[in-house]
Amino acid sequence: MQYLLSVPENFASCRKKILPDTPERRYIAAADPKGSKIGSGGATAWLLQKEREERQAAGKSTGAESKRIIIHAGGQSRRLPSYAVWGKLLTPIPVFRWAMGQPITQTLLDVQSRLYEKLMALTGEHQNTLIASGDILVRTDELPETLPDADVVCFAMWTTPEKASRHGVFVVEKEKPEVLDCMLQKPSPSELEKIGQSRFFMMDIGIWILSDKALGVLEKKCKPLSKTSDGVPRFYDLYSDFGPAMGVNPVLKDADIARLTTAVVRLDKGEFYHYGTSAELISSTEKIQNLVTDQRAVWQKKVKTHPSIFVQNADIHIDWNSSHRNIWTENASVPKSWTIRENTIITGAPENKWTVDIPSNICVDFVPIQNEGKIDWCLRPYGMSDEFRGPCADEKTKWCSISLQTWFKRHGIKFEDTGIEGDTDIQAAPLFPVVQKDDIPSLLNWMIALKPEKTSGGESERAFALQWLNVKRLSADEIASRCDIPYLYKQRRDLCLKNLPVLARHYEKSVFYQSDLSVTARLYAENGIKLPSPLPQNADYISRMRDFMFRSRFAELTGKDGAKEKDKAFAVLRELIVQSAKPVMPRYDLYSDQIVWGRSPLRIDIAGGWSDTPPFCNINGGRVLNAAVDLNGQQSVQVYVRSIPETLIRLRSIDNGKSEDVRSYKSLAAFNQVGSVFSIPKAALCLCGFHPDFCTQSFTSLEEQLCAMGGGLEISLLAAIPKGSGMGTSSVLSAAVLGTLSNACSLNWDKSETANRVLVLEQLLTTGGGWQDQYGAVFGGLKLLESEGGMQNDISVGWLNEKLFTESDTAGCWLLYYTGITRTAKNILAEIVKSMFLNEQKTLDILQDIKHHASESALAFQSGSYEKAAAAVLRSWHLNKKLDSGTSTAEIERIISLIKDYAAGYKLPGAGGGGYMLICAKDTPAAARIVRTLEEHPVNNRARFVKLSLNTKGLEISRS
Predict the structure, then answer these.
(1) According to the model, what pLDDT value does residue 142 have?
(2) Do the beta carbons of residue 447 and residue 379 sit within 8 Å?
(3) b or e along 220-229 (b: 16 or more beta carbons within 10 Å of the residue's beta carbon)?
């Protein structure tokens, strides 16, 4: 994704050192032209100009449109001085205590980018530009499946009149809330009350998506007024000039903008957090951190003395108590000799042994300044609510929470001696002294003291005043241009690295094991940090799994073999699931000539697959939409069980033409033997009590047990479907064997218990896997399957409207094509589960999208709209490819290229890469065209169509 960042000039000049390009993200950072005010619209045009220049320099076409995200963060940040040099974008955001997979190093830009890239993934062919404000954090667990096909798509939220009066507002008709009527800038509450009588109003959250056409109009509005302006755009504001000219009844008249179509997308479950002021830095973060109160979902168990204390990238030794509140300490060293009270932000403080006393409502920013090869420090104290706006001579202009003029008087300084003109804006006033590190504590204490005459015994008060008057001083504007940003960034990073072992050591009270451990492992490996001690056996199983996989990734990154640690992680998961299977005692309930016959449909997953896979589902719950299906009118999986007089267990595979006699527990427990076609029935027999590990009674041998039971068993299997089909065959066969044995051996398992035991069986086989395959086949019909976090033994089944599979006008549009290409799911599964263990943010984000999409897909099928259902299938395909690039292959893409003009949707069931392909033809004639095309151009000599029909009964078991 291409990012265009409007940032302060100093940051733009060193961006590559601080924010390097990655394979996923490329950045262009630029400041507004020096000495020019061009507004957010002009800044957008300026960034686009810089993008074209860079593309031209790289020899790329300047006409081709690509997706881009533009973020405006080039303001002066007067009300949030602590992060002004970064343009607020690199403001560190603490890992949410209830969230999983956030990197410990995350910034506001990182959190923003996740949402923006998700939105861009929904855009149409000509919607290529997203524009956003750099000081907002928008959260939502649900996004629309598609975006309106409009020139300008604006995102909005419901809010109160009071809050809306401080922002832009979209006005819409109640009957058509998606159509913009007009946009207002900071309307009064009384205006909004009047609007609310007949229309709705929503808050503009600062995220717009523009079509190429709309972007062209915006650039036209920003064209330089004259040829002598060196290409500098004219002043034009996106929100006060462009926005009010949009809509059906715009406030401003503009013929070009009036020709653009607009739409409003409301994020009903979204949250808006502003990071525009010092107070909001703390209050917004506190609101996010305490958003979730369900203790089952809060991983960090530490209870702070007050929830508004935030410490990051810091070496701090303060004994917090209940009087401390509204405190932010970041990129700073704060020894025990400091006194901190409340309403304080401390940033940038270098390592020190000072004694510093910070009053309430006072913040301090320490800014490194290069001075002939060494670092001096600029001291920037300020008040929590200072706005850094207004003439210096005005009594209303504040600094350090009091009038600037009062500060001068309190500190024994005559205003006329400062060299500052009375009409100088405080942002441009040189108030902040630059000193050597050793001179910091005494001068700082004097500057921030409520009674400066007492800071040094009174006699030296004048000396401090003279020192302040005589040293080099910078204004807030000058600090932004003079700050040594790379030095400041290195100090932050070094403190972060120093914090990591502390977080690991106190893992029970920290976010260490809930963060993105792939990022943390890289930090450990690249910086030679010693691994933490192994977790104790009594640590919670989730942390233990993550710890082993963290060590495995660290080993890989340092050139060592991480397989042993990886196996330990999977072993913890396996142990957890296997121990949930309670031992049983099988007892035959069969006539000597009777056969128990189990037969099962297959499952075809439509949406949500992968969200049912441990450990993701153990933490987040899973949600899958799938259907039980017959192929060519037949149930593809069949199992036959009968008793035999011999004291052995005879296994037969009809489709493989093989058989094996099992005579011992050892042979039965060898279900992991490579190449065995009887792994599933052997593991199933163990779970059914034919092995000491799972039997309530004790026997010396299998022969003794079978003798006590009255003889042995013969089990015959038939799986009339190719291997690697993607239809869940192994899980379905496991369920059929377990269900049939349960009937034959008086275990009396219901369908849910049978399906649950499959999860255990697959862990015994080390193949892993989720629960959707067996549940999809055991329970017939079209259904939405859901689980909550924890042990996955309570899966809810909700049946849905099946008419799209049964009614004549749509039933023939569902096609099932066997590609003749096979792919084993075990290795795919292992890699994705590995990323689940590591809390890799990218993987977890996609899995959450997949889970949410299952709900949206269920609504589509329930509505009876074939178009929506087919679109849901297609989105499932795109999400699966996003999760695993190997889901599709060149051969699969060739098939798609042959049918895409006639198909409204398609996907490969299961892990993908081969097997069957579900195709949703646009209509019945299109279905015939697809069949004809693929029969005339088969990808191999095994490819063929198979008749698909919905099975409403699921697993059936009967007796002869």
Answers:
(1) 85
(2) yes
(3) ebbeeeeeee
Per the DSSP assignment, residues forming a β-bridge with 339 are 357
Contact between residue 202 and residue 142 where contact means Cβ atoms under 8 Å apart: no
Comparing C-alpha atoms, which of 770, 863, 751, 852 is closest to residue 810? 863
d(CA 746, CA 465): 93
Three-point CA angle 775, 855, 101, nearest 5°: 90
Q: Give mean pLDDT, residues 925-939.
A: 96
Quote the CA–CA distance of 774 and 777 in Å, as a whole number: 5
CB of 3 closer than 8 Å to CB of 25: yes
> Cα(111)–Cα(123) distance, rounded to whole angstroms?
20
Whole-angstrom Cα distance, residue 782 to residue 770? 18
Count of C-beta atoms within a 10 Å radius of residue 661:
12
772-789 mean pLDDT: 96
Rounded to the nearest 10°, the torsion over CA 515, 519, 524, 527 is -140
Q: Do residues 853 and 845 touch, judged by C-beta distance below 8 A? A: no
Q: Model pTM?
A: 0.91
Dist. CA 868–CA 857, nearest whole Å: 8
Reduce the DSSP state of residue 180 to 3 states and report it: strand
- Cβ atoms 607, 627 nearer than 8 A: no
Which tokens sit at 790? 């924890």
Q: What is the largest CA-CA distance in the chain?
A: 112
> Residue 932's CB: how many other CB atoms inside 10 A?
11
pLDDT (tens digit per residue) in 727-760: 999 999 999 999 999 999 999 999 999 999 999 9
**Assigned token pair, 597:** 């016959």
Alpha helix (H) residue ranges in 884-953: 890-899, 924-936
Closest to 67 in 3D by CA, of 206, 265, 210: 210
Nearest by Cα to 365 from 379, 344, 386, 351: 379
User: What are the phi and psi torsion angles at 818 (to 5°)?
Assistant: -85, 120
Q: Could you tell me which of 362, 157, 177, 196 has the C-alpha nearest to residue 274?
A: 157
Report the distance separating Cα 243 and Cα 257, nearest Å: 9
First to last CA, the chain: 63
In angstroms, the Cα distances linking 674 to 639, 671, 841, 846 are: 23, 9, 35, 33
- Provide the 3-class DSSP secondary structure of residue 617: helix
Strand ranges in 287-396 using DSSP code E only, listed in sequence order: 309-316, 325-334, 342-347, 362-371, 374-383
Secondary structure E strands in 225-336 = 262-266, 270-274, 309-316, 325-334
For 233, the token pair is 């755009």
